[in-house]
Amino acid sequence: MLYSERDIYFIKKTFLLAKKAKGFTTPNPLVGALIVKNDKIISKGYHKRSGLPHAEIEAIRKTTLRDMKGSTLYINLEPCYHFGKTSPCVDEIIKNKFKRVVVSTVDPNPKVEGKAIKKLRNSGVEVSLGVLEKEARQLNEHFFKNMEKNSPFVAAKTAQSLDGKIASRTGLSKWITSKKTRDFAKSLRDEYDCILVGINTVIKDNPHLDGLKKIPVKIIIDPKFRLPLNSNLANKYPEKLIIFTSYRDKNMDNLLPFNSGSWPVLEISSRNNNSSLLVKAGLAKWNNLIIRGAKVFFLREEERGLPINKILRVLYDLGLMSVFIEGGAETIGRFFDDQLVDKVYTFIAPKIIGGRSAIASVAGIGNNEVQNVRYLNNVRVKKIGQDIFISGYTGI
Amino acid sequence: MLYSERDIYFIKKTFLLAKKAKGFTTPNPLVGALIVKNDKIISKGYHKRSGLPHAEIEAIRKTTLRDMKGSTLYINLEPCYHFGKTSPCVDEIIKNKFKRVVVSTVDPNPKVEGKAIKKLRNSGVEVSLGVLEKEARQLNEHFFKNMEKNSPFVAAKTAQSLDGKIASRTGLSKWITSKKTRDFAKSLRDEYDCILVGINTVIKDNPHLDGLKKIPVKIIIDPKFRLPLNSNLANKYPEKLIIFTSYRDKNMDNLLPFNSGSWPVLEISSRNNNSSLLVKAGLAKWNNLIIRGAKVFFLREEERGLPINKILRVLYDLGLMSVFIEGGAETIGRFFDDQLVDKVYTFIAPKIIGGRSAIASVAGIGNNEVQNVRYLNNVRVKKIGQDIFISGYTGI
User: Fold this and answer.
1) Which of B5, B56, B78, B301 is catalytic?
2) Which 151-180 residues of chain B touch chain A by CB within 8 A?
3) What residues of chain B lie within 8 A of the CB of A304, using their CB?
4) What are the two backbone dihedrals, phi and then psi, of residue B386, each rounded to the nearest 5 degrees?
5) Is the peptide bond before B27 cis (omega within 30 degrees of 0)?
6) Closest C-alpha to A162, from B344, B383, B387, B325
7) Subunit contact A355:B365, Cβ cutoff 8 A
8) What is the distance between the alpha carbons of residues A339 and A334, in angstroms, rounded to a whole number?
9) In which region does residue A167 sit, left (phi positive, over 0), alpha (psi from -120 to 50) or beta (all else)?
10) Lowest mean pLDDT: which of A262-266, A337-341, B196-200, B319-323?
11) This prediction's pTM
């Protein structure tokens, strides 16, 4: 189907509006709305964060009923149909006498999924659906993954030399890429709900893992509970810290219902546990972390380590809709082995580190063969200063 | 210094002419020449291969003395001053009454190095030197390296996944990149005098290592002389094969002057050795190869294997002015360890192979640290179909 240049023009503008809140609307999608009359934008709005008004309501509030009458509403996602934290937008649109609504994509949320479009049409509003649909899905790639797979969107980031090394043979990794590149990589954290690393990365690099504009939740996969209490992650914003472990003190066997129920997850936090019990068990470190506000989850370790799919399940249940994995090589390799990575960000410093015992960016078990390993989709390549940035999608 | 747009325009044309013979002029440089009168090109020429006329002579022969009188000669490299396979071009230029000569760079050959420029000026010819000098040096990067360092120009090529793997954990390496990329990589061989690999690559992949337009010389580093007689390299064009080994049959100790002289190199070939001695020594395989036309060089093995710098020395002495290394990871790593690589060609298929035991593109000992590993210079990035091609210079 072909769309008018005018529609494409205004829909692109809704994308730009929507993007302003990138990383801040979770679990909601990014939405921008424009009210256009006689080819003039008379109002605009975007969804700023969960709990605040939806984009179309923002736009509607900023204008008058008289102006809206007979106008066109441009919006990158189907208006909502259901009562959430706000009342359904579809009813507001009908009430305000819009003549036409231009929408990029249907809302994949099963509670909506075309129902709002149908209701608009039944109420006599003209609806054009599908303008820049592919781009609109990509804009909300996290949200679409969430709704369609009931799972967080997962991205893996590496910063490596041209020969694929993330650390030299002596273990040094600071820094392979330039400051400019690292700042850019930091800004990507702002787009994600949480940053995930393996415990070895924490012990070796003692990272902060913060974004440029926000403090994301940090996830540590730490089977043996080796997290140092004096680490940056345990000290700065510990309330933003989630630890997955399988470690249990022998004294805890009677305290933790490890085998109770089919879902072997137990959260220990000051909110839902009796911390005095933990102290009694001598688990001072654990208790200390929990008092600081961190969360600890227990998962039964499997042959290859903690079960990644269950970790993602827990994160999703916690409302963490997107995960940014920052290493190390084994942790990233685990996610690739289990085909749980949606997007890849690779920063390449064009230099050769070399070394048969240097660390390559993706470990794990790996693929047996090479010919049928799938190419990433939508690969983009750009230079950042002296470095090269490559991104793409696995298409899982 | 600023040059006129006209001069830049015509000098760029000499580059294009010169490039037509890329890979075929060794040990001579790539040279293109234009004769321009009243802003019109009245003749042109380029150096097609060693032994054939120089570029300016080509151009001069195609026109008349009358036309040349008062014209300008454009040429990317200083005309020759010395008698080689041809008489000095500088004298031809003076004889033919050129008014002006525009040259990009001085010829780095110690036999020339500005002498021709001086002679032209002393003879009343106006000379403009330095137009697009940097580009002209890059055009003849092999030749400049040869003249300035008395050593072959060395390039290392890898074809790898986004995570730097050249083979999966099971050792498979065919094919990581696409057909289109591999054909392009093949065309790069045409630009080099010889292709170098380690014996493991020969045994594992049984490659041909030919270019698209020419059959280059192939070099195998094979310390234990494991080259299979039925390999492609030993069968197709064995006269183009050079093997470096340290293997010596115990019967050979009395035959080979291994310790005679300071330069521990011995060439065995049907040309300069008594092959009956070898047969007598029971070295049927060696003799077989030599009868086919291959050359075998002996070098004393050092701690890390055969001495790479001596191999390059031998190649240079043989007139092989540029070397294209195609692997494997250990061979390429050796060259990087010894800082003997001038140029890097990396083909990246944006796919993740993964695997802690998969093979990364550059092995060897490697750098101890990462921060001070130098970035490549003049890095170029381009897409070839689905793959990404990155090249750069080490600046050694």
Assistant:
1) B56
2) 158, 160-165, 167-170, 172-176
3) none
4) -85, -10
5) yes
6) B344
7) yes
8) 9
9) beta
10) A262-266
11) 0.89
